[in-house]
Amino acid sequence: MCGIIGIHGPAAAAAPQLIFGMAALQHRGQDAAGVITYEGNFHVKKGLGSISTVFKEKNIQYLKGRSGIGHVRYATQGGAEELNAQPFYVNYPFGIAMAHNGNVVNFAELNKTLHEEKHRLLDTTNDLELLLYTFASELEEHDLKNYKVDDIFDCAAAVMKKASGAYSVLAIIAGKGLLAFTDPAGIRPLVMGRKETPDGPSYIFASETVCFDYLGFEHVRDFGPGEAVFIDDEMNVHSRSINSCAARSFCVFEYIYFSREDSRLNARLVAGERVKMGRKLARRLIEKKIEPDIVIDIPSSSYFVASGLAEELNIPYRRGFARNNHIGRSFIMPSQIERELAVRKKLNPIREIVAGKKIVAVDDSIVRGTTSKHLVKLLKDAGAKEVYYATAAPPVKFPCIYGIDMSVKRELLAGYKSEEEILNIIGADALIYQSLEDLKSLYEDLGCCYACFSGEYPTCASADIIGEIEKERICSKRE
Ligand code: SF4
Fold first, then answer.
1. For the segment 310-327, what is each residue's pLDDT rounded down to a tens digit?
2. I need a labelling partner for 139 at 20 to 30 A (CA). Which of 147, 188, 305, 344 fits?
């Protein structure tokens, strides 16, 4: 999971806005951050770590130009080293800078084609390079002296045809404009905004709308599957629906966990979606005849799920854990040991609230189970009478091959353990998962990907491809 942002305006410097917007997307990745702007030449600053580590005042002055793209990275495909920090660029044709969020699943096949047919060799292990070189190779086949906007869309269409997987892409084509497009199944999010300025309209593209709120842009639209928008240098907007699958497969985990609660994706406030998930989850507790005294959330992504559940059960919501906000989300820590340490330092149960109570502890999901087990123990040690562990997500049984750090099957607890075994492992008094049917019922009109719950992948996903992605992830974690 990564975050992307792009700005193309008539006059104002893009870099300060990009970096401020990236701060609002920081929850999507803290392994690396980068910005590239364009003003006659490309200007680049990128490095390992969070935005505050990578960018200093002097960098912002150096990043000149009214157009730019920014990226915050959580490493999945390719290791976490600096070489893989985005954006990337090539100087021919025209000069193209690119950043993406997602994962190209036919990496090996596309890499082979680029090498054998286009004689291009990758510098990194990052799948963005495949998208960039495929796009550049297509563009150089066109008549560059008589360039037309349709050529840009043709090249985006060629990328969509050749690259299977999940990707939202932003690209600056030097002296021409800013391009944004999504994969044919529309798996990863991409939103567009607009702001009136004294010099004319300014446009923004991002993974989530939350950065529009920070930067004063109005949300114009969400991208559908296989859509592309190009803002030319005269600030004209061109858009095409290029190559969409019959059905959309938007990542449902964006609503469960990844996106910020104050973002709006596909005209749905993420917080509101979580309340609905909590209401559905409450029915599962009623079916199991579980009668808790209070509901608490596992901070911070499950607050709204917990509040929806509490409302539906008509019992109080309480804040059972105090959180240390100076440590990042445990899920996006790069290794298991760091994750465990982070959980220990991050959450402290409030004894006076939990002692002697039957508690429903609401989490977004159980992936590896380490966090859940530790939190149940913390609650019991603090005097909780009974702990019922409830999750907004169904059991995560299958690897995600679309750029989320759930690609190693043996790390997914529900992939090889029964519900009863998981209950014993985490040490709770009951385990309540959202049912997949209930989750699906919330998104019938949208069309979502549920592959990590059902094993039904919306793109090509042979056993070989799943195995390759898993192997690559295991190797990159050892780096
Ligand atoms: S497999 Fe799961 S995490 Fe991956 S894109 Fe689909 S819903 Fe999202």
1. 999 999 999 999 988 766
2. 188
